Amino acid sequence: MGNKINIILTANNKYFFANFSFLLVLFLFVFWIIYLLRKKGNPKLFVLLFLYHTGMSVFYYFFQSWPPYDTSFYYLTALGSTDMSDFSHVGGDYVCLILYPFVKYLHLSFFSGFMLFNVIGFLGLLFFYIALKELIQGNDRAGKFLNIFFFLPGLSYWTAPISKESPVFLGIMLIFYALIKPSQRIIYFALGGLVIALIRPHVLVMIIVALLVAMVFLAKTGLIQKLIVVPLLFILLVAAYPLVLERTKLETINVEIAEEFIEQQGVNWGGGSGVDIQNYNSLFKLFTYLYRPLFVDIHSVPMAIASCENLLYLLITWQLLSFKFLKFVKDEKNLFLSFNLLYFFIGAVLMSHTEGNLGTAMRHKVMIMPSLLVLFLLYRAKTQPEALTANKFAAGSVKDY
Question: What is the tally of structural domains in the chain?
Answer without folding.
Answer: 1
